[in-house]
Structures are given as structure tokens and as C-alpha cells.
Amino acid sequence: IGMSKSRNCFGYPLSIFFIVVNEFCERFSYYGMRALLVLYFRNFIGWDDDLSTAIYHTFVALCYLTPILGALIADSWLGKFKTIISLSIVYTIGQAVISVSSINDLTDHNHDGSPDSLPVHVALSMIGLVLIALGTGGIKPCVSAFGGDQFEEGQEKQRNRFFSIFYLAINAGSLISTIITPILRVQQCGIHSQQACYPLAFGVPAALMAVSLIVFVLGSRMYKKFQPQGNIMGKVVKCIGFAIKNRFRHRSKTFPKREHWLDWAKEKYDERLISQIKMVTKVLFLYIPLPMFWALFDQQGSRWTLQATTMSGRIGAIEIQPDQMQTVNAILIVIMVPIVDAVVYPLIAKCGFNFTSLKKMTVGMFLASMAFVVAAIVQVEIDKTLPVFPAGNQVQIKVLNIGNGSMTIHFPGETVTLDQMSQTNEFTTFDVDKLTSINISSPGSVDTAVTPNLEKGHRHTLLVWAPNHYRLVKDGLNQKPEKGENGIRFVSTLNQVLHITMSGKVYENVTSYSASKYQFFPSGVKEFTINSTEISTECPHSFESSNLEFGSAYTYVIRRENSGCLEVKEFEDIPPNTVNMALQIPQYFLLTCGEVVFSVTGLEFSYSQAPSNMKSVLQAGWLLTVAVGNIIVLIVAGAGHFSQQWAEYILFAGLLLVVCVIFAIMARFYTYVNPAEIEAQFDEDEKKKNAAKNSLYPMLEPAPQTKM
Length: 708
Prior knowledge:
By secondary structure, the chain is an alpha+beta fold. Helices cover 51% and strands 16% of the residues. The protein has helices at 15-45, 49-65, 67-101, 118-149, 156-185, 198-218, 232-249, 271-287, 291-297, 303-308, 327-350, 357-385, 585-608, 615-639, 645-668, 675-695, and strands at residues 8-9, 12-13, 188-189, 195-196, 314-315, 318-319, 394-401, 407-411, 414-418, 422-423, 428-431, 438-441, 448-450, 459-466, 469-474, 486-492, 498-502, 505-510, 519-521, 524-531, 542-548, 553-560, 566-574. Strands 7, 10, 11, 14 and 15 form a five-stranded mixed sheet that branches. The chain has a four-stranded antiparallel sheet with strand order 9-8-12-13, with no helix packed on it. It has a four-stranded mixed sheet with strand order 19-16-22-23, with no helix packed on it. A hairpin with a 2-residue loop joins β1 and β2 (12-13). α2 runs parallel beside α4. The radius of gyration is 33 Å and the shape is elongated. It starts with 7 loop residues before the first strand and ends in a 13-residue tail after the last helix. It is a multi-pass membrane protein. The chain crosses the membrane at residues 12-33, 53-72, 84-103, 123-143, 164-184, 196-218, 279-297, 330-349, 361-380, 620-643, 649-670. Keywords: Cell membrane, Glycoprotein, Membrane, Peptide transport, Protein transport, Symport, Transmembrane, Transmembrane helix, Transport. Interacts (via extracellular domain region) with trypsin.
């Protein structure tokens, strides 16, 4: 052990301040990088949503599987201190590699702004991610346990408070980084071509990881460091294996039963090890139901963010983008942890209720389950406002008259008459097989038959401008625009090709009487300019859109006024979202309360119930439950295709409720232990034994204990 008397500050060992700052920087680095990942995969590497999401969840699961490796290295080989330092170096290298992988000038030899050999970038970013997963996972169980090690006997209260402060540092780091890195990402940079600045956005987390490492090393003189005690994990596995084999060999009635199945290892292993393993297996058994909590918890980043994209982000005077809603969790934690610690728990204690760790965790699971019930209710409200899109064998058509006279369109069983520059308000749904004929007629001209060339499951717009002039356009939008953005497309009635630029995005070659593809824009008023040689220079060339909200789509028709200048008319294709994002706050609040009582307590419980040489192993076991939770999401989301999103939320809520009841029953039968006391007892016994041994005559051999 290093310095025997550690320096104190506010009744805490001074060393833990270094550990908390280190954790803050490390989490800033990790979450900052993680916030960018899906966008980086999609926009830079060019993978689709499904692949990006799958790789993202795989990476997260990997980050929570590697702690077992970290715990092994720490407890059996390097000790916690050296493990944290060596793996932090690996981690910093990983962060540096991934920021290098996002420099497009690395392989962009022809300077056209896109990398020439993507595989190089993919390979580099995968190497970076593996190194990061090794680093972040490996140090995770060690840092919290190393912090717990800094406390003396009789500092339980401060130690519990430390786990709360530690959790606060995690969330403060993740909160600040999730706000800052997206701001860095939208900066423009590059040597030959300016574009979204991933190298900077990944570089800042890498720099903070280096800072985290330096801060940790600076505290080196003050830490209490324990020597690793040989390959503990190996001993544990061997001892359990021996106990099971031995029990199996002696399964006939003639052998007396033993109190605990692990007692069957007594022939070969000493009592101290057996009692330590008993403590660990008792806790690990309790962990079996816990992944279900994380399965719900980790959907904030996926499902709940997608839910936010179908909502309106205008809260009072401010506008919130859907992916910023996740910060609500971190903000609430930073507020809730101190309140729960300083107000709620003391109040419960005053009422004379013994709110044990496991009771807290049960309450946490119940609250998370209720959060999903609320999410389902919000989803039902949203579903009422969503437009109906064609399913299976259906198609939808709307008619847009961009000509100068009125037109009549005959569908099977329905006739529509439109004045000039107007559209049908709704999309009409048809069965592909039933939609045999469409005819267009206008006063004083022959009917024109339209040959319907329609794609199943899609929306189409029929542009008409003269009796025998029409064009059928596939919209390409069969869902609300993603990320709460707004789709805009242009239809030109001029006789020449137009170029339109709208807030940085270009619509090239908009030909006459046809529709451009949709491009997507965040909320707000957008400016656009129309480049056309036909229009005189006195006419205005730049226009403004209406104030775009969230999740809408519009068609802008460009036509010439009588004065010869251009005018733009707006037609709504998909109405904007109406349900407010503020409605998500109750579900975030419930989930956060659940997290505070579940997660902080779990960290501290895992530490307090573990024997001194297995603290990291149990912390790793705790983190493993997070990994399994992420895997559950991948399986459920992949296997169960729910036609209704709310049904999936209710399913998750129900599963967690069942698990919560099971956990409550398991917790009833759990008896708390004080590992330090048990170990002290063994030390006492050993001293007595040694004293007795030395006083007896050496010739008295102790009789062999096992008479087989």
C-alpha cells in the first residue's frame, strides 16, 4: 500500500478529486465521439441507416463487454493504477486514429472534396473504434473501484457520496460534450475543399482523453494502491468448477448434504477463497434480471430520438432539434442526483423506512417501466396526427394543376375539378389493380387518357397544365422527413432549365414542367435564389420560404407573372408535426429518476458487496448487464416488427415490470454482507491458528481432514 495516511479535504481523500476530474474528461471524450458516430457513418462513409445503427449498437455493446478484460488485467496482473494508465494510452491512440480517419484530404488526391479510397477511412475508423472500446471498457471497472479504494474503514457515508459524485461527473461530461461536439461538427474545414469538420469534432475528444490521462498521472503520489493478487478470475473459475464436479461425484444419499453448493470445494480450496466466491456469486445471481433495465434505458438514443423526429420542437421561444432531446436526461441527472442524495433519501430515512440498496434498485426498474408506458401514450397521441401512407398494394395520388385553365380529372369512382394553380388537398388512396384508367378533360377539348405507371407503396403527384399535357411524378417520400427536417422540391413552369440554390443546397437542372427531388432542411425561414437567363435583371432573383416547422414537405411552383418576373407558390405535401416535444419530458423525467436510484445504487452496491480482491470483477459484472441490455435491443428490434410503435413500447414496459417483480422477490432473500468484517475474521482465525501451531510440539501432525 502506498502512503498510509492519505491527505483529506472536506472529509474526502484528496486523491478522489483527481479521479473525478479524470472521469469527467474521459466521459466527455467518449460521449462526444459517440454523439457523432451515426452521422459520421451516414454522411462521411455513406452507409445507410440500418447498417449505421447496427454498427453503433455493436460498438456500444463491445464497450461494455471489454470491462471483463480490464478487470482481469487489473485484479490479476497490473493492479488498477497501472491498468488505468496503460489502457488510457490505448484509448487516446484510438481517438486520434478515428479523427485521422475522418480527414477527407487523406486520400482525396484529385481534390474534389470526397475521399478517393473509402476502404482506407473505413479500416482506420474500425481500428480506432476497437482501440476505443478496449480503452473505455478496460478502464471503466477499474476507475470506479479505484475511487472506492481510496476510502478508509468507517468512511462508508463518504464512499456512497463519492459514487454519486462520480456518477455526476459522468453525466456532466456527457452533457457538455453532446452540446459541444455537434457545434464543432457543423464548422467548415479542409485543405482543398471546405466541408463538415469531423476531424475537429473527433479531435477535441481525443485531446480531452489526453488531458484525462495527464490529470490521473498527476495524482499518482496520493493514491492508495493495492497490489494485484494473482490470477483471481482463474482461481474463481477453477474453484467453482471443482465444487460442481465434486458435488456431482458425491450425489448419492450416503454423503451428507452441505450448507452451500460451493462448500463442495473445501477439499481443495481454503475457506477464505470459498467465502469470497460465495459473496461474488450471490451478487452475480442478482444481476441476471438487470439487463432488461438497460434495454429500455438505451433506447433514449435510438427509439425516443426517432419519436422526437415526429414531434414539433418549438418550446416557447426556443426551437429544439430532435437529437438534442437526449440532453434532457443528462441535464435532469445533474439536477436530480444532489436532490435525491441530500433531500429524498434523508426524508425517507426520517420516516423510519429502511430503504436498502436493493429496494432502491427495484423502485428504479418500476419507474423506468412507467416511463415507457408514458412514451406509449405520447406515441398514440402522435399517431393520431400522422398522415396515412400507402401500404402494400396501394398507391396514393394527388393532382397539382400548374396550367392557366381549370381541369377535370376522372379517377375510377371519383372526379376532381381544379382551378388554375391549385391542388387536391389530400392524397387519394387507390388499389393498384383497381386503378385502371385516369382521364383528363378541360372545357372545349378532347379527353386525354393517362397511362398510370405507378409504383406500389408510394405517393405520386400528377402534374397537369393543359388537356393533353401531364406528367406523373413519384414523390419518393413514404414517411415523415427524418430528423424532423422539412422536404422541399421545386416545379418549374418556365421553358428553360433552372438552377436553384436554397440555404447551401443546390437543385441542378430543374427542367420545365417537371418536379425536382426533395432536399431536406431544418426548421426556420430559408432563403433561395433562382438562376435564370430569361428573367430581366430588374426582377428579384432571391425569395424566402415560409417559416418551416418540423417534419413537413412542400412543393414550390415557379411561374412567370404577367409583369414578366417570377413568382413562387407554395403547396403543402405533408403537414408539419403538431405534437410538442415538451410532451417527452415526463418520460425522460421518470426514466432519469429510475436511473438515479438504480444506477448510482448499483455501482455502490457492487463495490460494497465485493471482497477486496474482486472489486473490479464485480464492477465489470455490473457493466456486463449494460452490454446484454444493448444486445436485447438489437434482438427485439430485429425480430419483432411491430406495425404500431406504441405496442413495442408497451411490450418493453411489460417485460421490465415482470423482471422488476422477479428482482423484488430475489432481493427479499438476499442478505447483505460486510466483506471487510468477514476478511478481518479470517485474519483473526489465521493468527490464532499460527499461534496454536507454534506452541504445540512439531511432531504432532494435524490429521488429514478428508477421509474418503
